[in-house]
Design a protein that fits this description.
There is one protein chain. Helix content is about 65%, strand content about 0%. By secondary structure, it is mainly α. α14 runs antiparallel to α15 and α15 packs antiparallel against α16. The longest helix is centred in the last third of the chain and has 34 residues. The termini are far apart.
Length: about 450
């Protein structure tokens, strides 16, 4: 028993923390998709998996790495706690399940027809991207004989790749209008479901991307929790296993590991694919935070690179990166093993602002997203649901990448905000919030 604890002690502690996050959802009937819960669950679960050490590259964290990981966790939880103390949750809004809402109240506050037409426009843009890529490849990528060639960084599709990689935006716009609890228009709901399915399937066929697929499915998962009913712990666990299966499937489709068939791979190699995908974020983090004497650490980016995504399409961030010799999104300098080049958001924050950034950045983000979480429950608007679904998914995905450094991420935010405001009826949601507050307070 002692040997097991000594060898797998970190994994056991991390898995216990993840189980606690699930336990409070099951026993205490808490919302699983609270920001603090999602951060603790995803960070603990993924580090627990990494510390199983199924790959020799995953060595023990050194002290600085533990300071960064634990410090960021504490910082985020403190940010959420401070928000709850400064702005205590009103009892009237503790239960915000769809069944407690006023039926069809959203019709009075939101132009669903406008939303539908704008959604169709971006769906059409996505389809143009698919057709554009087909014109360059000759067919859908998954039907070619050399998938890895067409999904490599060397393949240049121009603007068509941006259109196709924006499939999660289309899914988000369609997903929020697919639920009866907020959208009384049956035709739009059915059309939205159809668009969601077609977009996800076409995106995988046209350009098999784990990031786009998981983001699309994750967005629908979060929206379902708030617009249909709270998901159960069993559903969450089953979804995690399905996510692993999806990951392996897409990896095989991309021929990323030299074969497109399970028969051509040893079973231990198949099992190692999702493990390496998770663990390399942590072994690279430790590798970069504690460079060997013969290896120079990536230079500090002085906070400039943190704003890369906001200005990416101006080409200025790329020029700055090239001028100073900073890594691009492929993180060539962080690879402990060639081909595994991700680090999670902690390295990005550290190289931007150092240990001070690790202490403050998670705190500020936790405070802001906690505000958005409470706002979503109090003022039920499609704009807020879309923003929260997008932000929360990327928060959960922070173990893998800092989504805020992507230009597409910010482009989607601009589009979502524009559509939400164009479709919103003037002052209607402010009135809705006041009326809902009055009704709920009287109810309690």
């Amino acid at each position: 028993m002692f040997d097991v604890l000594q060898e797998y002690g970190v994994s056991i502690v991390c898995f216990l923390l993840a189980i606690i996050c699930l336990f409070q959802t099951w026993i205490l009937k808490k919302d699983f998709f609270r920001p603090a819960n999602i951060y603790a669950f995803t960070q603990a679960l993924t580090l627990g998996v990494a510390y199983l050490k199924l790959n020799s590259a995953m060595s023990d964290f050194r002290p600085l790495t533990w300071i960064v990981w634990i410090g960021a966790m504490v910082s985020f939880l403190l940010g959420s706690l401070v928000f709850s103390l400064v702005f205590p949750k009103e009892k009237a809004f503790q239960d915000s399940a769809p069944e407690n809402w006023l039926p069809n109240s959203m019709e009075k506050h939101y132009h669903w027809n406008r939303h539908f037409y704008l959604m169709l426009f971006f769906f059409a843009v996505f389809l143009v991207g698919v057709l554009g890529m087909v014109s360059k490849v000759g067919t859908l990528i998954v039907f070619t004989d050399n998938v890895s060639k067409w999904v490599s960084s060397e393949a240049n599709y121009g603007v068509f790749s941006i259109f196709v990689m924006s499939s999660p935006l289309v899914v988000l716009l369609a997903g929020v209008s697919a639920f009866k609890s907020i959208n009384p228009n049956r035709f739009i709901r059915i059309s939205s479901v159809f668009i969601c399915v077609v977009t996800i399937v076409l995106a995988v066929l046209a350009y098999p991307s784990r990031t786009s697929l998981f983001l699309s499915v994750g967005i629908l998962f979060i929206l379902f929790n708030y617009l249909k009913k709270k998901v159960s712990v069993l559903f969450i666990v089953v979804t995690l296993f399905l996510a692993v299966a999806l990951f392996v499937s897409v990896a095989l489709i991309r021929a990323q590991y030299g074969t497109r068939s399970l028969e051509g791979m040893a079973i231990d190699r198949v099992a190692s694919i999702p493990y390496d995908y998770i663990a390399n974020n942590y072994w690279n983090l430790d590798f970069m935070l504690n460079p060997m004497s013969d290896r120079e650490r990536h230079p500090s980016t002085y906070g400039i690179d943190a704003f890369h995504g906001i200005f990416e399409f101006t080409m200025l961030p790329g020029l700055i990166r090239n001028y100073y010799g900073w890594d691009n999104a492929f993180n060539k300098s962080v690879q402990k093993i060639p081909g595994y080049n991700t680090t999670g958001y902690l390295w990005e924050v550290y190289k931007d602002w150092g240990i001070l950034g690790v202490a403050l950045f998670p705190f500020v983000i936790a405070f802001l997203i906690s505000y958005l979480y409470e706002k979503v429950h109090k003022t039920k608007t499609p704009l807020l649901w879309m923003l929260y679904a997008l932000f929360l998914y990327h928060l959960g995905w922070w173990f893998f990448t800092a989504g805020y450094k992507s230009g597409l991420f910010w482009l989607w935010i601009y589009v979502i905000f524009f559509i939400g405001k164009v479709c919103e009826k003037r002052n209607s949601f402010k009135t809705q919030e006041m009326n809902q507050e009055k009704i709920m307070v009287e109810k309690f």
